[in-house]
Design a protein that fits this description.
The protein is of the alpha+beta class and 343 residues long. It is globular and about 65 Å long. The two termini are 20 Å apart. The structure holds uridine-diphosphate-2(N-acetylglucosaminyl) butyric acid (EPU).
Amino acid sequence: MFDVPAAIQCQMDLQSQNTLALPVTSAYFAEPDTLESLIDVISWANLQGLPIMPLGGGSNVVFCHDWPGLVIKYGERSLVVDDSLADSVLIKVAAGFEWHALVLHCVASGWFGIENLALIPGSVGAAPIQNIGAYGVELCDVLASVSGVYIETGEVFLLENAQCEFAYRDSIFKQALAGKVLITHVTLKLSKQFTAQLHYPALAAAIVNPQPSANEVVQAVISIRQSKLPDPLVIPNVGSFFKNPLVNNYHLSSLLERYPAMPYYPQANGQAKLAAGWLIEQAGWKGKSLGLVAMHAQQALVLTSQPGATAADVLRLAACVQADVAALFDVRLQIEPQVIEHV
Ligand code: EPU
């Protein structure tokens, strides 16, 4: 055994730290709120040879087992504004800031661009990992840079937007840098001028005012989300459980012949994005449960869990849904949240 610094808790129950409420523990847990204390806990874990896992709000992870090392939740919540530009502001926000609180703070401050991303659960530090997106806006549209620390060495890094390899629900942090870095700060470039972004039909339909304020857009996004997406604090879930799949135009045409009413979104590269929720509903899984987990009755793309459900239950349901959607549409659904399987 080794000495455990006071800043590190042992045998931490992570059930309230992941929004699927899966019953898992971490051998060690720390919530440092300065860069110095973060580097201290990283060095300690590296010295003991313990695996390190960064965690944000826990709203996009599926823990498959207890974590044998150190889980680090970076707690700093600072926000620093650079107002030296004429039309925009740069805001550097620490990872521990809650995402939705940031959206509200920005709108109240007259900084615009993230209204459509209201009510997305989770922390600012987790937002770049899956490049959060909703109602026609993605984080990468407003992100300037991401900084953090390499887990292996404790060295700091800074990546500009173009280096983050952002794509639909994807980034370098889910790919080459997965498990290798801990994000401490995100810098956004927001506009001082509000322009409503209403190209997503469901959002446009929810707004009556032809020139809505930023606040009206935020309120419309909140009410659409609340009507379809379960509150993770009431019904445990991680939002969309699968990505919307991409198919080529040939595949799209053959599906449209069989399902003329199928929703789809043409993409720039000769592909089309399908609505996974629609595919899952057609496959008969909307509102259907398998043991203690279910596909949500208001939005089939959301997998929900009940007390006592385990990761095995979650992955079993996911596999059944994937198999039925593949059999019907020849489309392979990819799981969207991070599945923490092996150390
Ligand atoms: N649909 C169904 N049945 C369902 C669900 C959806 O037929 O059970 C149909 C809808 O009628 C609509 C289409 O599918 O024609 C799209 O549905 P929706 O507008 O609800 O959006 P989505 O494609 O299912 C995506 C994101 C959401 C995001 C919304 C709004 C992904 C994986 N999901 O869902 O993001 O809020 O668009 O932009 O891209 C998340 O990532 O956790 C998330 C909730």
